[in-house]
């Protein structure tokens, strides 16, 4: 057999499927179908990790997703090093490499274990109370040291090379859990004709049938029945069976998130995605999530070799592995007997069953006795020996008395089963406490959902299947499916369990100083929880956070109920009075990869490129991101840095001309008989009298009176306006317009159309701009008289339809050529040929910014910040004085907006012309005043202006326009910089150049 | 992710297609310049922000583009109704039984 602990004739794995794997550098053999945990146990490896805080040796506790201890690293290659993989979930593949975590230099000898000796200092709340002083030492010293000493796996340090997939799915009935109950529910739901998805977190459905060999359904062993039921479901057209798929989040309106592990169990995943995220919208949800066994809380209950009884049964009955050769059992519950019986029948010695209950009875008890197993009722295990593997247990009467040591090499414990109500709770259901069975169960359902089987507290298999089949059929019918479902599967035999207790076992109670672990993964003991109560924590949520009970990656699946019982006992309350902590997604850890999915790298956010993007790239433009747009920032020539390139571009535009890609500007067509009336309402300016063919600079306000957007608007016809917006404002301006049109002014006959993507825009600016475009323009008279500044014509450029604007954001004679985007690059190429002949250049956004600042033109969002009125920005002229209404008219009349002392836009000229101020820098009147100084404004725009031969800046300063000529100061780390307040226009103050 | 019924498209669509647009039934005064400072404050700044049944505007921005109104329970996130802009505000009493946060218990 493969591994010393495999027992021939047990388990369901084939001896033929041999696989090689390694753990901490040692090679082992496993079988196809093994989990890493079962394969290690088969090789008698119990010690698999070190604990989080105390570095205590730890072994495998469970056989499922609830595992808190057996966390390992799985290393495929340099980039694929997954930490904190549960060995009980990871399937073995040929060549798998696993390593233990949180130990140095080795798992068996770990220096960090010294923490265990100092554990009195590491009790609950220790970090909060101890590392408070000095404050700075926390970040510099304490935290790094503590993080290095504690913790689990190490995160990979390379980018994740794997691919993750995502699917949206809709179904009538989603069944979560493929145990017997889930399968029964899926079968009847599917038979009604409803579209069904059933998911199960394991490699194959079957749930508890994996270990529960006493069950017979429809004349077959439970596991065999489950596989046949699965095959039947998989063969139905209306059913999707998802294995290795965990429902980890239950959100509003039956929206359930599933994580499917696609490649992690394969030696060669090939081109498969590693995981697939399913976002399922189900009309009905059936939860069949089962129950999780709890451990016993007693001294040193974390020693390797101590595990859950059902886990030992799983290893034996499914994997053919015995977890020991001389096994002790510690029970507060019948189900542990079944483990002893199975092992005994497989030839394993059972040292004793220690049962807390005084008078255990029932079939399992009788069977155990009949097999000659020594049953010790009314007794407790108060301690164990063996550090890296349990070697004996110390047993006393539960009420106290002489103790006795019994040699063992494994100890199976069970204190009962906790129904898995996680998803029910996530659906916002409130659990109810069932006093007779000491557990929390689903109560009212806030969503279209139902629980069946063990997660609903239905323990008996026949009752569970009946409940599940009925629920499945009901769910199917509720969605309108009408076909007849068959009856529930017939249960011929099952195992009946009763008993169970939450909280501490004897010897770990009130005054005991022993380490009786409640939460293995976070190293929380019963003593810690009692201490939290003693230190004043009253709410279970506070107890949880103070002790970190249930806050590890296992989310307290085995520990929450114990913790609650201990806290309730210390508080002198009933469990239901204390209440459960909140269950939150995810049910089990989900990789960031699955959640992020395809949305990374180039797919993280869309990239918008203009029609001329390739040309810019060919001409070595440096790009800047403006929202999602890539815009040419500047075009450096050989040997130029940014500063030199921008200086050259700025000078060239003013001396000859420049070409600028303005395609990213937002463009909205406002069309309809009431278009002018609508424009009157949305902009401060008057529009009724603007003649077709003319343009106007428009200012848009919010209702509060602050500047929202601006742009040049051309009137193409009495009923048609071509509106431009800022690049960043395009979407919100359209939304703003639509909002008013649809909800406040629905009587207006106007249609709004975004045409930002439809028009490519080439700005040609500079004294030679007319010469550059002239050869290509047809049907438009370019003479100054025929096409004056601020006008627009429709015609042809390079033989394609064009809207030609005579306008300028540079202060030079200028044009903006709008052509359909498909022709943008060709027209640009043509204009560029002519531009080059004229000595013009291409220029980017930096030069555009400098040129407009030289002219004192504002940029909304840079020189304004959502608290600036048109008057503040020097744009009072843009408000139609005779208008009786526009959005923002009333806001402008608010007292604060009319009050004196508002910040106004002014120009700033530094005393030293070579100093360029920092944008955003604060301004003070007196640099020698005591700190904190009174700030009177801030710098909004600041550049070196090659054309002015000095630095220029725009600033918002309180009462700025009344302070012309005054000197103000910009305090900086190296001293205050003096600057004089002046006009906002730095170049061509009379504005003559736009007229050519 | 919520499903929201668009009263214009007449079907439920995922929340991603929609954008919230603030409180509903706040009409812009016809004679807005005649509003007192207090009245303007009430119109522009003051919002109910209830715990429980809220009347709010949504826009099917990545769909038909229409603004519409909705009745939603701000505690459970449940939508009770959606209706076209301009329609009468449905009576809260109609939903009070189903609302989880209908009464402020604080």
From TrEMBL, chain A:
The residue ranges of the Aminomethyltransferase C-terminal domain are 903-988
**Domain of life per record:** Bacteria
Extract the Gene3D superfamilies matched here: 2Fe-2S iron-sulphur cluster binding domain, sarcosine oxidase, alpha subunit, N-terminal domain, BFD-like [2Fe-2S]-binding domain, FAD/NAD(P)-binding domain, Probable tRNA modification gtpase trme, domain 1
The terms under GO molecular function for this entry are: sarcosine oxidase activity
Single Gene Ontology BP annotation: tetrahydrofolate metabolic process
Task: Give the FAD/NAD(P)-binding domain ranges.
Answer: 172-431
**GCVT N-terminal domain mapped to chain residues:** 612-883
Keywords on record: Oxidoreductase
Looking up InterPro entries in the UniProt record yields: 2Fe-2S-bd_N, BFD-like_2Fe2S-bd_dom_sf, FAD/NAD-bd_sf, FAD/NAD-binding_dom, GcvT/YgfZ/DmdA, GcvT/YgfZ_C, GcvT_C, GCVT_N
The positions making up the signal sequence are none
Q: Which residues form the SoxA A3 domain?
A: 515-595
Q: Which family does it belong to?
A: Belongs to the GcvT family.
Entry protein name: Sarcosine oxidase subunit alpha family protein
Automatic annotation (TrEMBL), chain B:
Leader peptide range in chain numbering: none
In the record, biological process GO terms are: tetrahydrofolate metabolic process
Enumerate the GO terms in the molecular function aspect.
sarcosine oxidase activity
Native organism is Nitratireductor arenosus
Q: Which domain of life is it from?
A: Bacteria
- Entries under InterPro entries matching the protein: SoxD, SoxD_sf
Kindly provide the name given to this protein in its UniProt entry: Sarcosine oxidase subunit delta
Q: Name one Pfam family in it.
A: SoxD
């Amino acid at each position: 057999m493969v591994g010393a602990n495999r027992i021939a004739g047990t388990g369901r794995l084939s001896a033929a499927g041999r696989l090689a794997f390694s753990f901490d550098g040692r090679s082992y053999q496993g079988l196809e179908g093994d989990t890493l945990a079962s394969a290690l146990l088969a090789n008698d490896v119990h010690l698999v990790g070190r604990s989080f805080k105390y570095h205590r040796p730890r072994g495998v506790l469970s056989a499922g997703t609830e595992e808190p201890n057996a966390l390992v690293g799985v290393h495929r290659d340099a980039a694929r090093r997954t930490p904190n993989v549960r060995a009980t979930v990871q399937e073995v593949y040929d060549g798998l490499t696993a390593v233990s975590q949180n130990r140095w230099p080795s798992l068996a000898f770990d220096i960090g274990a010294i923490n265990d000796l100092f554990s009195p200092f590491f009790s609950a709340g220790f970090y909060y109370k101890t590392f408070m002083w000095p404050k700075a030492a926390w970040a510099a010293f304490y935290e790094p040291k503590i993080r290095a000493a504690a913790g689990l796996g190490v995160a990979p340090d390379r980018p994740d090379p794997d691919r993750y997939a995502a699917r949206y799915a809709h179904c009538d009935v989603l069944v979560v859990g493929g145990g017997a109950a889930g399968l029964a529910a899926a079968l009847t739901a599917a038979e009604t004709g409803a579209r069904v998805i059933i998911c199960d977190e394991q490699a194959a459905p079957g749930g508890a049938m994996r270990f529960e060999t006493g069950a017979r359904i429809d004349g077959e062993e439970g596991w065999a029945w489950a596989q046949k039921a699965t095959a039947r479901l998989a063969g139905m057209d209306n059913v999707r069976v998802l294995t290795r798929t965990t429902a980890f989040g239950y959100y509003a309106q039956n929206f359930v998130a599933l994580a499917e592990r696609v490649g992690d169990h394969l030696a060669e995943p090939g081109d498969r995605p590693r995981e697939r995220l399913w976002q399922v919208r189900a009309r009905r949800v059936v939860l069949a999530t089962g129950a999780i066994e709890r451990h016993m809380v007693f001294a040193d209950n974390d020693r390797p070799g101590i595990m859950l009884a059902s886990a030992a049964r799983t290893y034996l009955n499914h994997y053919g592995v015995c977890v020991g050769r001389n096994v002790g059992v510690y029970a507060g519950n019948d189900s542990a007997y079944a483990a002893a019986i199975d092992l005994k029948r497989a030839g394993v010695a059972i040292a004793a069953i220690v049962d807390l209950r005084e008078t255990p009875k029932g079939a399992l008890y009788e069977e155990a006795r009949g097999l000659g197993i020594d049953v010790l009722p009314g007794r407790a295990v108060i301690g164990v020996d063996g550090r890296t593997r349990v070697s004996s247990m110390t047993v006393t009467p539960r009420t106290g008395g002489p103790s006795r040591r019994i040699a063992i090499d494994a100890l199976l414990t069970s204190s009962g089963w906790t129904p898995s109500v996680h998803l029910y709770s996530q659906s916002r259901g409130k659990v109810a406490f069932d006093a007779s069975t000491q557990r929390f169960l689903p109560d009212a359902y806030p969503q279209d959902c139902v629980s069946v089987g063990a997660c609903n507290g239905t323990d008996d298999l026949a009752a569970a299947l009946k409940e599940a089949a009925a629920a499945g059929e009901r769910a199917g019918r509720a969605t309108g499916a009408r076909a007849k479902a068959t009856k529930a599967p017939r249960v011929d035999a099952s195992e009946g369990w009763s008993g169970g207790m939450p909280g501490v076992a004897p010897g770990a109670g009130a005054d005991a100083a022993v380490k009786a672990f409640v939460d293995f993964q976070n190293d929380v003991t019963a003593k810690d929880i009692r201490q939290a109560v003693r230190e004043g924590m009253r709410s279970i949520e506070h107890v949880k956070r103070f002790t970190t009970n249930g806050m590890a990656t296992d989310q307290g699946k085995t520990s929450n109920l114990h913790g609650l019982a201990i806290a309730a006992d210390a508080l002198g309350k009933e469990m239901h009075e204390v209440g459960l902590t909140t269950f939150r997604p995810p049910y089990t850890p989900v990789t960031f990869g699955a959640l992020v999915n395809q949305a990374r790298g180039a797919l993280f956010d869309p990239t918008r490129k203009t029609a001329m993007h390739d040309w810019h790239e060919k001409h070595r433009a440096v790009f800047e991101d403006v929202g999602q747009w890539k815009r040419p920032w500047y075009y450096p020539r050989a040997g130029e840095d940014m500063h030199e390139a921008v200086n050259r571009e700025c000078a060239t535009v003013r001396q000859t001309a420049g070409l600028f890609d303005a395609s990213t500007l937002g463009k909205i067509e406002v069309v309809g008989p009431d278009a002018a009336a609508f424009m009157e309402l949305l902009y401060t300016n008057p529009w009724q009298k603007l003649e077709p063919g003319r343009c106007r600079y428009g200012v848009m306000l919010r209702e509060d009176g602050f500047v929202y957007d601006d742009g040049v608007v051309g009137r193409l016809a009495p009923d048609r306006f071509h509106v431009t917006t800022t690049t960043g404002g395009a979407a919100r301006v359209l939304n703003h317009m639509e909002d008013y049109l649809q909800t406040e002014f629905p009587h207006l006959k106007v249609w709004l159309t975004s045409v930002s993507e439809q028009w490519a825009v080439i700005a040609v600016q500079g004294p030679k701009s007319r010469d550059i475009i002239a050869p290509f323009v047809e049907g438009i008279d370019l003479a100054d008289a025929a096409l004056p500044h601020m006008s627009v014509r429709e015609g042809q450029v390079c033989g394609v339809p064009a809207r030609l604007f005579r306008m300028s954001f540079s202060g030079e004679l200028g044009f903006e050529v709008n052509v359909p985007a498909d022709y943008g690059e060709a027209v640009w190429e043509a204009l560029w040929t002519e531009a080059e002949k004229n000595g013009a250049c291409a220029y980017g956004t930096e030069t555009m910014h400098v040129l407009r600042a030289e002219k004192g033109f504002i940029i909304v969002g840079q020189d304004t910040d959502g608290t600036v009125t048109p008057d503040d920005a020097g744009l009072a002229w843009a408000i139609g004085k005779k208008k009786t209404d526009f959005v923002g008219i009333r806001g402008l009349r608010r007292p604060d907006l009319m009050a004196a002392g508002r910040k106004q836009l002014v120009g700033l000229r530094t005393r030293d012309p070579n100093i360029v101020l920092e944008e955003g820098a604060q301004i003070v009147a007196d640099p020698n005043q005591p700190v904190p100084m009174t700030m009177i404004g801030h710098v909004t725009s600041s550049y070196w202006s090659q054309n002015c031969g000095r630095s220029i800046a725009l600033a918002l300063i309180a009462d700025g326009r009344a302070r012309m000529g005054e000197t103000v100061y910009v305090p900086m780390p190296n001293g205050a910089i003096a600057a004089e307040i002046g006009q906002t226009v730095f170049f061509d103050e009379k504005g003559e150049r736009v007229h050519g | 992710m919520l499903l929201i019924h668009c009263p214009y498209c007449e079907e439920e669509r995922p929340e991603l297609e929609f954008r919230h647009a603030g409180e509903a039934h706040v009409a812009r005064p016809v004679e807005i310049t005649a509003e007192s400072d207090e009245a303007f404050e009430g119109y522009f700044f003051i919002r109910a922000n209830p715990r429980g049944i809220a009347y709010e505007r949504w826009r099917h921005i990545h769909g038909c583009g229409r603004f519409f109104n909705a009745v939603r329970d701000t505690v459970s996130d449940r939508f009770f109704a959606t209706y076209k802009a301009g329609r009468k505000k449905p009576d809260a009493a109609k939903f009070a039984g189903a609302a989880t946060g209908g009464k402020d218990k604080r």
